[in-house]
Amino acid sequence: MDIAALIAWVVTALGGFYLLGTWIQRGGIRQQQSGTSRLPAPVIFGHFALAAIGLVVWIVYVVADKDALAWTAFGLLLPVALLGFAMLARWIPVHRERAAAAAAPGAEGTVPAERHFPVAVVVAHGLFAVVTLVLVLLTALGIGGS
């Protein structure tokens, strides 16, 4: 199950990299000054940093097979999940505004960078994140191991 969690974590990270790249490319960092982006940079980069550190800890766990590392990785995943839910809650209104803006021609203006996130990538990232969290917890509890 530890390898399944690793695969799920890597797939989740790939989706996260895509979303982060889209946000940066569409001016998310510059929009922090004007307040156009609804996603605060510290939340985004904190989410990224904790997830990356947790992934490194998980890789070390897979190699070393020490229970403390599994629990450490799980402990790192909890704030990652909370930050992810916070970002999702701030992204949903932006996504809804996108649909309203499409219905009103000429009302483009300055759009938040996160408006360019593909819904499929956001949903897949979230679902794989939940799977990762559950698999890491089950592995740390010793359920489903060999």
From TrEMBL:
Give the protein's recorded name. DUF2269 domain-containing protein
Q: Does the keyword Transmembrane helix apply?
A: yes
* Membrane-crossing residue ranges in chain numbering: 6-24, 44-63, 69-89, 119-143
The answer to keyword Membrane applying to this record is: yes
Keyword entries, A-Z? Membrane, Transmembrane, Transmembrane helix
